Amino acid sequence: MSRTGRDFMTARVVFAALTLAALSACAPQVPDSGQGVGFDNSFEAQRQRDAALAGGEVGVPGATDAPLPGSPEDTAAATTRILAETRPGAPDSAELNSGVAPVQASPSNPAPATINNPGISDENDFDAVAERQTIESDAARIERNRAQYEVVQPEALPTRQGGEQPNIVAFALATSHPKGQSVYARAGFGGEGRAARNCADYASPDLAQIDFLARGGPTRDRRGLDPDGDGYACDWDPAPFRTASEG
Fold this sequence. Notes:
The chain is mainly alpha-helical. The chain has ten helices and no strands. The longest helix is centred in the N-terminal third of the chain and has 24 residues, at 3-26.
């Protein structure tokens, strides 16, 4: 092998050694904790806590840890004692708990006081009403109320102002034929055009019908307001008045 080949092989060996050294330096170190991963002596810690609840001395040299509670009642009693001792200013545990599992703490607040507001009616309270009312007193109260009744006699309706004008409501109820049905004779030519011009003088068909009746309608049509002879001027319709009287 030539010198150049030997130098190339040497360089490769050195490069490989450096690479392995770098990889070894980057690898994380696994600590030798002497215990399982994630346990953190949790079983031992739980045992000590259970012993403390049962009243044993834990961690004191020369002392023996108390055994685990033997029943749910023992656990409840130990929990009651610890809660009573650790609560600041707490009274005796017998005043707080029933002693029966599960532990039931007594309420710390007194019962709310019942306030009787004199402004609120108690008419729906049977007991309250029964104390002050009887059948006889109810009958007497009904008679007093009846004696105070005042019967108002009906009076005649006031007279309509402007009674000299024709009443189109009475006219509508006195007739029965529909709008557009010819009943009265009309003479002359160009009646539709004349009716359109003269009807424009009225603010509404009701006013036109009033004036039509006042001038001798429906038999006479002095202004040509009713060219079809139905007795209704300027498209006035009696149907709404008839419907209102029936309903």
